[in-house]
């Protein structure tokens, strides 16, 4: 795990961050510490239902930059940014095309979660990895 300088952790090594002109106004969803127990588990006997508008707040993103992945004698870099679930897709596309100078993606993978110390059964992990590899190869 590597820190990006903003207290966030990710896989790989954080290299640098740069201003995001297109998504400066984009918001991210964060849990408030006061409501995290409600968001992460059911409270027995409670009638409180977790609600995104009540138990989260939107703030400008502070989680973006570049990760460096090293392994098997190779090093590759990948840009990342954390965005809200309701960020305008046009803004994301402009970020990819204009700021990051990337071609249109052939494959987009969205990862959601938040479980700490999540353990995936080795057989399921293998099946997932093989499935992702097959999709990636088909999209060139």
TrEMBL record:
Short name of one Pfam family: LSDAT_euk
GO MF annotation terms: monoatomic cation channel activity; protein serine/threonine kinase activity
Keywords carried by this UniProt record: Receptor, Transferase
EC number: 2.7.11.1
InterPro entries recorded: TRPM (IPR050927), TRPM_SLOG (IPR041491)
GO biological process: metal ion transport
CC per GO annotation: plasma membrane
TRPM SLOG domain boundaries: 78-140
Protein name (record): Transient receptor putative cation channel sub M member 7
Annotated source species: Desmophyllum pertusum
Phylogenetic placement of the source organism: Eukaryota, Metazoa, Cnidaria, Anthozoa, Hexacorallia
